[in-house]
Design a protein that fits this description.
Layout: E1 6-10, H1 15-26, E2 30-37, H2 44-56, E3 60-65, H3 88-91, H4 103-118, E4 122-124, H5 140-153, H6 155-159, E5 165-167, H7 175-184, H8 209-221
Parallel strand pairs: 1-2, 1-4, 2-3, 4-5
Helix pairs in contact: 1-7, 7-8
Amino acid sequence: METQKKAVVLLSGGLDSATVIAIARDQGFDVHAISFRYGQRHSVELTAADRVAKYLGVREHKTAEIDLRLFGGSALTADIDVPKDRSDDDMSHDIPVTYVPARNTIFLSFALAYAEVIGAKDIFIGVNALDYSGYPDCRPDYIAAYEKMANLATKAGVTDDEKIRIGTPLIDMTKAEIVSVGTKLGVDYSMTISCYDPDTEGRACGHCDSCQLRAKGFKEAGLKDPTLYQD
């Protein structure tokens, strides 16, 4: 019997990562998910990640502990206000203060180690180059460079015939396209949280960049937004 191919998927508890898990499973992967408690102000996302992992039936779900508050430098890991009610033009210029320095590089490194241990050749991450709010570690060039590094830096990359791949199925999709694909694959987006500044009950602020992009995506897709908002 052919063994089902394994994949490690980065799971934040948000809309994008939930969609990526659904896509990976639809492609026939046995999904192993990894989330991160990194000192983020919106730790309710980890509760959402647990819900999503159980609902979508991942094989294993691990949560790594890293405290990026040690460095700060982001509205998500330091006492810095989260920007609210920015225009589309504002969101398309400059790198926002919600960018967490080197976060995707750190997260992918953990996922790479996890993949090597379980024998997975595929790592999936829900980065997006269209609605990406200016984050440098969501660009195609960055992903290509990381994939090259992954195959230079690991025993599996050096000794195995099959190379390690970094999958980015959402990278060229709009938020509307993402929610449409996920809905068709059975994702329950009411389980997810995308907000940068939710309250302790997990209700979204409705005003940060992420909330605005999410709401716009559902509206443009003609789908009901199931997000629980504070107001």
